Amino acid sequence: MRKSFRDRFRSDTELDDLPDHALLNIIRIPGQRYFSPWTLIARRVVYALILLALVALMVYADKDGYSEDLTFIDAVYYSAVSLSTTGYGDITPVTQNARLINIIIITPIRIAFLILLVGTTLSVLTEETRRALQIQRWRKRMRNHTVVVGYGTKGRSAVAALMADGTPPSQIVVVDTDRHSLDMASSQGLVTVHGSATKADVLKLAGVTRARAVVVAPNMDDTAVLVTLSVREIAPAATIVASVRESENLHLLKQSGADSVVISSETAGRMLGLATVTPSVVEMMEDLLSPDEGFSIAERLVGEDEVGANPRHLADIVLGVVRSGELYRIDSPEAETVEPGDRLLFVRRVFREDVSGQ
What we know:
Elements: H1 2-9, E1 27-28, H2 37-61, H3 72-83, H4 96-141, E2 146-149, H5 153-164, E3 172-176, H6 179-187, E4 191-194, H7 200-205, E5 213-216, H8 221-234, E6 239-244, H9 250-256, E7 260-263, H10 264-277, H11 279-289, E8 294-301, E9 317-323, E10 326-329, E11 343-350, H12 352-356
Parallel strand pairs: 2-3, 2-5, 3-4, 5-6, 6-7
Antiparallel strand pairs: 1-4, 8-11, 9-10, 9-11
Helix pairs in contact: 2-3, 2-4, 10-11
């Protein structure tokens, strides 16, 4: 089954094997905003045309100073030939005034024209090389990051929660097929990869094999299953957190290798039901799920002075104990006593100073 799955989603050319310069339209590293090469070329062509028109007007204004009686077309022709340094010699300045204008004004413009054309080529090549080197460095250095598959409503909320909990944007990579969504992610300082996460080579570009965790948040449940299978295939040690719309697909995500699955439709339905009966409970739940203000649910390592104590008697409001990767609720017998190495799941008060970093 896994072999057929790999064969189905394997592309003829593995993106991960492509040279870095071939990935410029796939991987985007956040940073200073740079214009595309075509924008740079178009802008400089406009500048060149303005210089050409300016010289043509000056030549035509002094048309009597040249070897022929110039029409405006002749003036444009002379300007183009002169600025491009072609110099056919069929039209030449003959009066002192025309020659002085050529020396003082047209010659510097000719030099600027050449710098403009050469500078366009150098700028495009330099920008392409810079971005390729940036991608190369990023692919070598990225470790223990979080990959978010899908930057829709769920993906954006997941990223907001990660960043509010202290994860730097440079440690989050977003994978999506929608350019507009990737533009939004890039504006938040996130690294983006354009492509379908159902393909292993796209996931490898996102560094899934070296990632700490992968958040699977596409819009369709079948896509979530395929992505989870592909991630687990190439990254056995990564923590996979997946979202599913319908509860009947929960077991598919679990069988595919997801460590944790969130049922979005049922969760929203429960919140709606609670809101009609006890709206204050919904308000408190939303507060707990918002890590940037009010109360939030957090996890910390047990202190040395807390070992052996009952978690109910600690200063924090403890909800559960995580022991050897297993969560025990506060009312379970295993959570009666705190042991060395345990982690406590507790309610934390978030102050605005914590959010602002002051």
